[in-house]
Amino acid sequence: MAAKQNMNSRRDALKTLFRGAGLLSLGGAVWGSTAVTLKASELTLRPPGALDEYHFVKACIRCGTCVEACPYDTLQLATLDDHTAIGTPFFKPRLIPCYMCTDVPCVPVCPSGALDVKKIAKQNDGVKTGKPDINKAKMGVAMLDQEACLAYWGIQCDACYRACPLFGEAITLEFKRNERTGKHAFLKPVVHRDICTGCGLCEHACVTEKAAIFVLPRSVATGKVGAHYIKGWDKDDEERLRNLKEKKTEESSPEDELNDWEYLLDDE
Amino acid sequence: MMSSIIERNRYLILRRTIQTGLLILFGGANWWGWKLLQGNYSSAYVLESFYLTDPHAVLQTFATGFIMSSDAIIGGIIVLIFYALIAGRSFCSWVCPVNMVTDLSTWMRKKWKITQKEYFISLNRKTRYWVLGLGILLSPIVGVAAFEMINPITMLHRGIIFGFGAGWAIIIALFLFDLLVVEYGWCGHLCPLGAFYSVTSRFSLIKVKHDVEKCTMCMKCFDVCHEKQVLNLIGEKSGYIVGECSNCGRCIEVCNDSALKYAIYNYKNQEVQR
Ligand code: SF4
Ligand code: SF4
Ligand code: SF4
Predict the structure, then answer these.
(1) Is residue B269 part of a domain?
(2) Nearest residue (CA) to ligand 1, atom 7
(3) What angle separates helix B127-142 from helix A2-39, to the nearest 10 degrees?
């Protein structure tokens, strides 16, 4: 009798255990997938000095101190309907761009390290200082839609060119003869991606109905060639290949596929 | 008459004053540029000199494998120490804005005489500890502080200060859940932050103390307490209320026999003194 009761209670205990484990996995699956969906934020522009998106959503504690520090109300905290990790700061340049404050008030107040002064540190003779330099910010990169840009139609418009805080550097105008009229010139804006900060003043200034120049996050708007392409005409890039080889021979693995690369240097 | 109403709600009035006062200070930082308390309950920038950070959020971030800056970590330690050593789980009833929402549910339950404690689903009060653990466990898997992705507390607080977006729907859902589905459903069964502070503040200094000799077993305290399981010593023995007690002081207010009061926890002698 007692033994039977024991069996029953043990079976009950097991049942409870399995049910508990099941409920826990159910909760974990629903919760986890919700979190993953909600944090997917490929198209979000972050404040200056932000870590890369992967680390940024981990780091940011969602306090909004950066939002309050911004004198232009550029930054906002994501709500449920902003399609990015809830509570994290972002900006929409067509509404309010980043005016690239020289003192960058939004970055040093960040308590979590999600915005890091080091990412935009001012350089003195190549040495990083503790001071921020807003021109080093890489919030995104301006993309230009040539079909929608009036200047590429041959109409004179240099709104973005003039709005850019890195005047004459991040956007330059390319002069081309307009064959259609035969007597006018194109003044085509060209973005220089290495200099552009992604502040979005150009997007804000663009006169077309939907901006023809707009900022995208660099992770989205940047391609990648791959390490096995080498610029044979570029000494530094060639060096890269040599360094790679030396390292490998040190590790002495003869079958290493990198040896296949040797032919690349043959014509020297 | 009036004075007795105030007397019977003295802590309630004080709590609401502090809760709304903090909201106004935080809101003022965003709306009018006040510098007293910037940010929100995730991390507050105090007087432009130091930070107070939600230790539970720091813990989750830590679980994702990211080490925050010292500003946030130190802020988290200050808050943790304050509640763990001094104030107990009082964040929940003295600071948290969700408390005002769920208390409204409770109040409407009484008003509309909704007596059924659970409807449609039943929940264990220990569930919150599983939610707490699961949140920490999920954080490294999903690569983001898991509870912060769905946290209705910060959603409400951010909503008030920075604007809700669609977030108000979550708050309404939470309100209705407490009103119609489970009595004390969120704060008393599910909230991992409440669970976090319950665990960490087991030995806090400020606690509610019961004096069994004065108790007439009127059971008024059971009527108002949102964590009734902590009142198991009422009428049985003198001692301190521990566990999930949030130090709200409702029981003290309703007790006509002065059998309950705030006291300093005596680590050595936990039962006898008056
Ligand atoms: S640099 Fe200035 S304008 Fe740009 S986000 Fe920061 S505070 Fe705002
Ligand atoms: S200050 Fe830092 S932690 Fe706070 S919201 Fe901005 S980025 Fe996130
Ligand atoms: S090109 Fe546009 S986004 Fe880039 S720095 Fe100039 S104004 Fe800013």
Answers:
(1) no
(2) A70
(3) 40
Considering only CB atoms, B39 lies closest to which of A65, A76, A80, namely A65
Q: Is residue B272 part of a domain?
A: no
What pLDDT is recorded for position A5? 67
- Residue B58 structure tokens: 């720091």
User: Does pLDDT of A261 surpass 90?
Assistant: no
Give the pLDDT confidence of A136-190 residue by residue, as tens digits. 999 999 999 999 999 999 999 999 999 999 999 999 999 999 999 999 999 999 9
A34 falls within a domain: no
Evaluate whether residue B69 is within a structural domain: yes
**Ligand 3 close to Cβ of residue A93 (< 6 A):** no
What CA–CA distances, in Å, run from A54 to A59, A60, A121, A130, B223? Answer: 9, 11, 21, 24, 48
CA dihedral B242→B246→B249→B250, nearest 10 degrees, is: -110
Give the CATH number of the domain where residue B240 resides: 3.30.70.20
What are A193's two structure tokens?
Answer: 């991606």
| Domain termination site, one of B164, B199, B234 | B199
Q: Which atom of ligand 3 is nearest to the CA of A164?
A: 7
The C-alpha of A218 sits at a distance from chain B's nearest C-alpha, in angstroms, of: 21
Query: Where does ligand 2 bind, in terms of residues with CB under 6 Å?
Result: A 60-66, 89, 109-112, 114-115
Q: Is the pLDDT of residue A255 over 50?
A: no
B29/B37 Cα distance (integer angstroms) = 6
pLDDT mean over B193-221: 94
B49 touches chain A (CB under 8 A): no
| Contact: A31, B161; criterion CB under 8 Å | no
Count how many domains chain A has.
2
Q: Give the residue among A53, A46, A134, A60 at the shortest CA–CA distance from A90.
A: A46
State the alpha helices, DSSP H only, in A184-226.
201-205, 218-221
Q: What value of ipTM does the predicted structure carry?
A: 0.91
Instruction: Tell me if A175 is assigned to some domain.
Output: yes
Residue A228, token pair as written in the block: 């096995």
